[in-house]
Amino acid sequence: MSRRVGFMTMALAGLAVLLTVGAQRNVWAAGVAENTLPPMSLVNRIGIKVVIQVNSKGTLPTGVSKQVLAAKMLYNEYSALNMKSGKDYQIVMVFRAGGSQFLLNDGAYDSKVKQPHPKGNPNAAILRTLYKAGVKMYECHVAMKMKGYKPQDLLPFSRIVVSGIGAVVDFEKSGYALMTP
Questions:
Q1: Quick one: 58 and 8 in the same domain?
Q2: What is the pLDDT of residues 56-76, one digit of tens each?
Q3: Which of 61, 92, 137, 167 could form a disulfide with 161 if both were Cys (CB 3.0 to 4.6 A apart)?
């Protein structure tokens, strides 16, 4: 009998705690609008592996790729949290399809990219900064063949992969989270 009373007492105490916490949460939520709270920060700060697929030729008016800029913003966020590339996180970028043009050097960009753009590759400085910070960049060979790009057309820190899609799949199977901004 005493075992049964002990169990019932614990069960009632647990229920009381749950009801109290739930009531406090509802009162708190009702009194504060979510959008007035400070921005949420990253919870996971170690062991992060991200593969960023750059597959769109969409740019800002400055000619900078929206997807390249998103990669830079992710890097900036990690840096602001004092996270270290290669230790706390790894970022790789796979350039394929329409995004393959962003790994071209200045001369090749001027001669091969037909859309209006400033002189030279407006993404080169951002990509150089990311490279120096440990971000690895891969160019799709299939896209290169389709667009007439040669290895000497690429920025020197990029690596050619047989297939951009295949590289993305390989990175995902190796534990990288896919991001296509």
A1: no
A2: 999 998 889 999 999 999 999
A3: 167
For residue 13, give its domain range.
2-36
Domain membership flag for residue 41: no
Domain check: are 22 and 72 in the same one? no
Residues contacting residue 153 through CB under 8 Å, at least 6 positions apart: 104, 105, 107, 108, 112, 144
pTM as predicted: 0.79
Q: Residues of the chain with pLDDT > 90: what percent?
A: 69
Residue type, 110: D
Per-residue pLDDT at 157 exceeds 80: yes
Q: What is the pLDDT of residues 117-155, one digit of tens each?
A: 778 999 999 999 999 999 999 999 999 999 999 999 999
Tokens 């990029």, residue? Answer: 158
